[in-house]
Design goal:
Blueprint lengths: L1 E6 L3 H10 L8 H10 L8 H7 L3 E6 L3 H10 L8 H12 L3 E5 L7 H6 L5 E5 L15 E4 L2 H9 L4 E3 L6 H10 L5 E6 L2 E2 H14 L6 E3 L3 E2 L7 H6 L4 H6 L8 H9 L1 E5 L13 H8 L3 E5 L15 E3 L2 H13 L1 H18 L2 H15 L4
C-alpha cells in the first residue's frame, strides 16, 4: 500500500524550526523533509517508519513549509509562479497514494480535494476540533479524531468516522529524555490561550497562578476582536488581570518541547472546551511519556485511557487543581511513583507501533486490495 500523509504545521512552529536549523532550506527535499519530520512536531509522523516496517510505502509532507516545498518544486521542474496548493497537487499526482491522509485544514478539503481525486485512492482526514460541520467533506472516505464527541458528530453527518488516540515513539522519547537536563521546574503549562476555544483553560490558569508558580509557554495571547459572539467577547475581559500579571515564556515545539517536559516535575493539562469534557489530547501522552506527572481535568472517559490517581492525577475545578499541585510538589516519592506508572502505561499502550497497526486496519477497510 502507498500511503501519503499531508499536514499543515503551525506557522509559529515552522518559523522556530527554520530559526533553529538555519541551513535546512539549502538541503535537498528528502533530507530537509526528514529533518523536519524527525523534529517531532506532530505525532502522525511517528507512524511513517512504522508503516514502512510493515511493508508499506509511506511518506509525509508538510504542505505549508514554504522552504521545503520550494525545493521540491525546483527539483521537479515546477515554475516559480506555482502556488502552495499547486505544488501539493503535483506531489500527490507524482506519488499516487492508495491512501491519502490529510489534516483537517479547510484549504485541503473541498475544491482542492476534488482536484486531486484522480491521483489518489481512498482519502482519510483528521479533525480534532469544533467546526467540522461547516467544512466540505466531499470525497473523504473516513474522518479520524481523538475525541469521541467529534466522531459521533461526523457519524450524524453521514460520514464514516473512527476514534484514534495520539501516540508517541518510544525511541524518540528516550532520545529526548537523554538530552534533557535536571527535572528542576515545578509546574509547567504549554498550549494555546484564547477565550473563544479555551475559556476553561484560562479560568484554570487564572486561579492556579495566584497560588502556585507555573511556567506558561504559549505562542501568543489571542484576544477576540469582534463583538460576536457577544458572550465570549465580554467574558475575555475578566482575564485582563491574569494577562497583566503573567509573564509568558516562549513556546516550545518538537524536541525542545519534549525536553522542557522532561525537565518539569508536573505538567498541567486542560482540554479544549469543544471536547465536551472528554479526554484525548496529545499533551496527555507527551507528558506521561517524558516521565512528568500529568495533572489533568477529570474527564468522563479518562479511566478508559489512564487510571486516575495511579497513572495520572485529576482535578474537577481550579481550586482542586491548586490543592493537587501543592500536595504533589510536597510529596516527591508519591509524585514520582504516579509519573513512572503513567510513563509505563503510555510506552506500553500508546506507542507508534501499536497505533500504526490500528490505523492500517482502518486503511485496509476503506482501500481493500491496495
Amino acid at each position: 500500500m502507498r500511503i501519503l500523509l499531508v499536514w499543515e504545521y503551525y506557522p509559529s512552529y515552522l518559523d522556530d524550526f527554520y530559526r533553529r536549523n538555519p541551513d535546512a532550506h539549502r538541503l535537498p527535499f528528502a533530507e530537509q523533509n526528514q529533518l523536519l519530520l524527525e523534529d517531532g512536531f506532530l505525532w502522525n509522523a511517528y507512524l511513517v517508519p512504522e508503516f514502512r516496517k510493515l511493508g508499506h510505502q509511506a511518506e509525509a509532507y508538510v504542505a505549508n513549509a514554504a522552504p521545503l516545498q520550494a525545493v521540491w518544486a525546483r527539483e521537479n521542474g515546477i515554475g516559480g509562479s506555482a502556488s502552495r496548493l499547486d505544488i501539493l497537487r503535483e506531489q500527490i499526482r507524482a506519488y499516487r497514494p492508495d491512501v491519502l491522509w490529510i489534516g483537517g485544514a479547510p484549504q485541503l478539503l473541498g475544491e482542492f480535494l476534488r482536484s486531486v481525486q484522480g491521483y489518489c485512492g481512498a482519502v482519510v482526514a483528521w479533525r480534532a476540533a469544533a467546526g467540522g460541520e461547516l467544512l466540505d467533506w466531499t470525497g473523504v472516505d473516513c474522518v479520524l479524531s481523538s475525541h469521541e464527541n467529534f466522531v459521533q458528530a461526523f457519524r450524524r453527518m453521514g460520514l464514516r468516522s473512527e476514534l484514534v488516540l495520539p501516540c508517541v515513539d518510544p525511541q524518540w522519547a528516550s532520545e529526548c529524555l537523554a538530552a534533557a537536563g535536571q527535572r528542576d521546574c515545578d509546574v509547567t503549562f504549554y498550549g494555546t490561550l484564547n477565550v473563544a476555544l479555551f475559556a476553561n483553560r484560562l479560568k484554570l490558569l487564572s486561579t492556579v497562578t495566584r497560588h502556585v508558580r507555573c511556567n506558561i509557554h504559549s505562542d501568543r495571547w489571542r484576544w477576540q476582536r469582534r463583538p460576536k459572539p457577544l458572550g465570549s467577547f465580554l467574558r475575555q475581559f475578566r482575564y485582563v488581570p491574569f494577562r497583566l500579571r503573567t509573564r509568558f515564556a516562549p513556546p516550545a515545539y518538537g524536541r525542545e518541547l519534549m525536553q522542557l517536559i522532561a525537565e518539569s516535575k508536573i505538567v498541567l493539562n486542560a482540554h479544549v472546551d469543544s471536547a465536551g469534557g472528554l479526554a484525548g489530547n496529545i499533551r496527555m501522552f507527551e507528558v506521561t511519556a517524558m516521565g512528568a506527572l500529568l495533572v489533568t481535568d477529570a474527564c468522563a472517559n479518562l479511566a478508559k485511557i489512564f487510571e486516575p490517581e495511579r497513572e495520572v492525577v485529576t482535578y474537577r475545578n481550579p481550586a482542586a487543581a491548586v490543592e493537587k499541585l501543592r500536595y504533589y510538589l510536597r510529596h516527591r516519592e508519591e509524585r514520582k511513583a504516579i509519573a513512572r506508572a503513567g510513563q509505563q502505561r503510555t510506552l506500553r499502550c500508546y506507542n507508534s507501533s501499536i497505533r500504526a497497526g490500528e490505523v492500517l486496519q482502518i486503511f485496509n477497510s476503506i482501500a481493500p486490495g491496495a
